[in-house]
Amino acid sequence: MRNIRPPALTHRGRTANARTALALCSLLALTGCGGLANSVVNPMNWFGNSRSQAVDPRAATNPLIPPPRLGRRPVLPYAGQPVSQITDLKIERVPGGALVRVTGLTDVIGYYDVRLEEENEGLPVKGVLSYTLKAVRPAQTVGVGGAAARQVTAATSLTEQELEGVRQITVRGASNQRSSRR
Fold first, then answer.
1. Where are the extended beta strands (E) located within the chain?
2. How far apart are CA 83 and CA 176, in angstroms?
3. Which one, 1, 59, 85, 143, has least CB within 10 Å?
4. How far apart are CA 105 and CA 111, in angstroms?
């Protein structure tokens, strides 16, 4: 008859038993360390518990907005003027609304701060939503230049709620306007 060792006494079995014993000892040792749960080392305790505080309803100031400082420059009104010519108007459907993209042509090179300003406070009048393409003319002009150098583009997004009741979008310039219908 052959001498057969039980599986727990084989080489692999000893290693597995040793690992199991070590894991059980570690588990027993850690259960005695209840102070670790309340320790600074535990990331769940880094901010502590929340607590309720009374709020003064008369204080309408937001603590995240800094108070106005002395010496701050006043905000100047926008000095843009309508661009000479509107060359392109595209209305692209996007999730949740539309994107209105307008390209215009200025009379000289160097216009900056191009904006698509809404008319009628952004509300449609008889189903027509109107904008004006404006840009600020430079103090010193470089020259007339080619059409590609004088081209400016601006865009704005409209939500589905803003498009409700709108059948046409019109963008005006100094010498012409472009419209797009639904």
1. 81-82, 85-94, 97-105, 112-118, 128-136, 151-159, 168-172, 177-181
2. 10
3. 1
4. 10
Instruction: Report how far residue 111's alpha carbon sits from residue 130's, in angstroms, rounded to the nearest whole number.
Output: 22
Q: What is the per-residue pLDDT for 168?
A: 92
* Pairing outcome for strands 168-172 and 128-136: parallel
Query: Taking the CB of residue 120, how many other CB atoms lie within 10 A of it?
Result: 11
Report the C-alpha gap between 22 and 7 in whole angstroms: 19
Q: How far is CA 124 from the centre of its chain?
A: 27
Residue 11 has pLDDT above 60, yes or no: no
3-state SS, 67-109, equals CCCCCCCCCCCCCCEECCEEEEEEEEEECCEEEEEEEEECCCC
> From CA 130, how far away is CA 168, in angstroms rounded?
9
CA distance 28 to 21: 11
